[in-house]
Amino acid sequence: MPPRSLDTDVTDRDSSLEQQAVRRSWFLSAPALIVLVFAASGPLLIVLIYSFLKAGPYGGVVWELSGDAWFKVFFQRDIFDETLSLADAHLSIVWRSIQLSFLTTVLALALGFPTAYFIATRPQRSRNLWMFLITIPFWTNLLIRTFAIMEVIRNEGIVNTLLMTLGIIDEPIQMMFTNFAILVGMVYVYLPLMVLPIYASLEKLDFRLVEAGYDLYATRFKVFTRVIIPLVKPGIVAGSILVFIPALGAYVTPRVLGGGKNMMLGNLIELQFGQGRNWPLGAALSMTLLAIVMIALIFYVRGAQREGAGHG
Amino acid sequence: MAKASARAKRFSIKEQPGFTAIALTCFAALYAPIIVLVIYSFNSGNSVAVWGGFSWRWYVAAWNNALVQEAATRSLVVATCASLGATALATLAALGTTPVRPYRGQTLIYAMINQPLMVPEIVTGVALLIFFAIIKVATGYSGLLYLIVAHMAFCIPFAYLPIRARLEGMDLALETAAADLYATPWLAFRRITLPLLWPGIMAGGVLAFVISLADVVITELVKSAGQETLPTYMLGQLRRVITPEINAISTVLLGISVAIVAVVFAFSRKES
Given an 8 Å threshold on Cβ–Cβ distance, is A161 in contact with B231? Predict the structure, then answer.
């Protein structure tokens, strides 16, 4: 955290007033901060500690320092000849999570940008209605929306039933419990998170600049890539981050649509606290997920600062 | 000549080829599955894909299901307590963090308040599971308070943001004017600041309620045995054959969220 420089040319009276304001600020924030330390940041520290302990036989931990959990995240020992190899089971899930989240982000951008653009170019009155239509799914239960997708793509679902009734296919297309299902589900549930920040950027876009581009004989494509995209970039980056981060830590969507075989990182972590009964490994995997998210966030903040623009 | 001007009129600088089609497809795709889900909640048959005629059967079934009743009550209790608590704390924090100048430690407070938005839910859930397990062993208490506190924590940023936005748009000179007229700080707060801030507090509280009501991941990890909320109950039903009862419960929950968000949305538009 960069230390903020306080103005130096303040008089003594001002600075004592200012100190009072700062004290008041901490005092009023204290109750919220206490709850957050107790039920958000404090427990995170305990996770970090647990990742360096030994697993208890029936879940929980043995209070003994050990690098086992972190070792297991990346490597595995062959049960017969003790040779080391990369922990495929874990790393493939980590890799799948990154791939699926990336694809989700790309698809959400491909669909979300035109949607945001469409809304931003409507007349003011109908714009509010379109925004309302995007906001509703954003605030509705993610589980319910995942259920809705499931009922559409299940073997006995509406798509397969319809195609079979029409005689296009003889047996249902297996879509559930595949990576495809997770991808469709994640794009579906996270799309509003892409549209909202891009819309916020597009709303501020000065279309006279677009007009100027056309006046200077730029093609539609040139205007789009050279004028519109650069101006809306903060919104695009914010939207991508807002989609990528929850997608990477997704638990509900892969559990409902991917089933046991197509786990993502979130499911692998939960498994360690359920059937897996390896709490330190679960803690180490959680910290791995958190690290990836933090790296993404740091890139975002750096980029935003360089752009000198707000969060879009 | 006339033809050329007609063509010129048709060239709109705002238009991008294909965007309207993609946008409308997206809107259709966003709503179609939800509409199908709602329609099949009224199915008289056992299937969520084959239509057997209209009936309230599954709503009656859900209403009479003791497990659903219990889970729904628990969901409401947790969401009410958590959102009230989170809103009170967030209001204080918003009042504290809207200063005239930046100061040391401000970034830390922001980071802490927004932490639940940045850290993946599964990580927060795991952290709480571990931490509460330690407290459970130490105190022997395994009641609903754990869920309420957990929900309160992740609801704080959702309550904080609208309150803070409202506060930033407010004219702070009014408070100073009240002080100039010999109002005590408390009187000025109660008669000037609070009434002006009220729409933000309502919006924050209501959104916190919606967020708490919808939570699955943290609840699933934090709850003690037998502490199902509606979302975790629904998730548990996945292992069984899915009947339109799930659709009926979903429809009711959807209705509640949509109604609440519609009211907040209408309110904020009117205000601005």
Answer: no
Residue of A nearest to B33 (CA): A148
**pLDDT per residue rounded down to tens, chain A (312 residues):** 444 444 444 456 667 777 777 888 888 899 999 999 999 889 999 999 999 998 888 778 888 888 888 988 888 777 777 777 777 788 899 999 999 999 999 999 999 999 999 999 999 889 989 999 998 888 888 999 999 999 889 888 888 888 888 888 888 888 889 999 999 999 999 999 999 999 999 998 888 888 888 889 888 888 888 989 999 998 999 999 999 999 999 999 999 999 878 899 999 999 999 887 899 999 999 999 999 999 988 888 887 777 654 443
Q: Which residues pair with A86 in a beta bridge?
A: A75
Which of B46, B109, B114, B130 best probes binding to A when mutated, by most A CB atoms within 10 angstroms? Answer: B130
Residue B159 contacts A, CB cutoff 8 Å: no
Report residue B234 as tokens: 């629904």
Local structure of B88: helix, strand or coil:
helix
Residue A263, classed as helix, strand or coil, is coil
CB atoms within 10 A of CB B71: 21
Q: Do B153 and A207 touch (CB under 8 A)?
A: no
B138 in reach of chain A (CB within 8 A): no
The answer to whether the beta carbons of residues A55 and A281 sit under 8 Å apart is: yes
Q: Could you give all domains of chain A from N- to C-terminal order, each with its CATH number? A: 12-76 (no CATH), 85-307 (1.10.3720.10)
Q: Walk me through the domains of chain B, giving residue ranges and CATH numbers.
A: 66-271 (1.10.3720.10)
Has this prediction a pTM greater than 0.90? no
